[in-house]
Amino acid sequence: MSESRPRRSLWPAIGLLTFVGVLLAVYAVFRGDLIRHSLDPRTPFQTYKPPPAPDYAKPGAWYVLPPHPEAPAPSEPAADVFFVAPTTFDGGRDWNGPIGDPRAERVFRQVMAPNYVGPFERLGRIFAPRYRQASLYSQMNLSEDARQARAFAYGDVAAAFAAWRTRYGDGRPFILVGVEQGGTLAERLLSDVIAPDPQLRARLAAAYLIETVVPADQPPLPPCRAKGEAHCLAAWASAPQADPDRAQRILDRALVWRPGGELDNLRGAALCFNPILGATTDALAPERLHLGGANATGLEWTDRPAFLARQVSARCEGGILRVSDPRSGSLTPSGSWIERRRLPGFNLFYADLEADAAARLSALTAH
To answer: What phi, psi does 167 have (nearest 5°)?
Structure first.
């Protein structure tokens, strides 16, 4: 009797542990769906009330603005960089995030700016507008509500560019940079505003649409075909060589602009620029030509990070830039489920982009 009682008393504990184990297993399998569900605004976009619009006449509407944007100092670069930020707002109640959301601001300052603004910091004065970003949730599905949220964000970016052009640009040469969601918005800016305007097009050194799918048959600007060529477009979306299904998933989920300002599924091939070669080409870029990636997360965006050269090879295949596994662990994705669905906290082509943009800007200003 005395020995059987302790054994019987173990059964509730064993049952509880088994139940907890089952719950953990279920969570592991459906974790993505559960998190995705938690980010769903569950409000039709047509009845959704978006946050207040930013006023680009005020410094608070900009992530990054020069100290004296209307009167550049002689010591400042002679060009400007208009930078459209990637997604940093996760979602929840809102389809489009308010400017100044604390978490989104922190991700931009600590991760996105050091890794993706940094390569262009020495080339021009940086103008990076805050805008009412379509949430990360809107990037995860192809619903009509998600498309409308992404199209809505373009209104802010267009207003910010108009403010830069009329208040700050003053005829200066410029580089356009858009990253991920920001790249999609920058693509429409090219199509609607820059490409139709000969004066703006003449001032554009290059447009870099990073991790952005652009239709190869209807690019808003001629693709960059060689190093040192100005007035052209460098656009690509990348996938690891070790993940063959990732490339097809990118193409299957890609949304591109159609005439009239609607987002539609990609039909046909995608444009693919190779940052190592500095050209839109299917040629292989071997590791020995890779100038350097950088993990700048946590640095000030104006700090120059240490470069890790000869880390990857890259080749455009089927419209996607297929990249080999980096040699350094600091250039591999990490973090939570949500963090892995944003752009990584490193830039595989940091030094390559810096050199490429410098050459195109030099070619523009030499004429």
So the answer is: -100, -35
Q: How far is CA 42 from the centre of its chain?
A: 25
Q: What are phi and psi of 121, to 5 degrees?
A: -65, -30
Q: What is the pLDDT of residues 54-94, one digit of tens each?
A: 999 999 999 999 999 998 999 999 999 999 999 998 877 88
Provide the token pair at 343. Answer: 């752009």
CA dihedral 50, 54, 60, 64 (to 10 degrees): 100
- 233-249 per-position pLDDT tens digit: 999 999 999 888 999 99
Whether the CB-CB separation of 238 and 325 falls below 8 Å is answered with no
Average pLDDT of the chain, as a whole number: 89
For the chain, count helices (H), then strands (E). 8, 11
Q: In sequence order, what are the beta bridge partners of 58?
A: none
Token representation of residue 274: 């190779």
Q: Where are the domains positioned within the chain? A: 39-366
Average pLDDT for residues 197-213, to the nearest whole number? 97
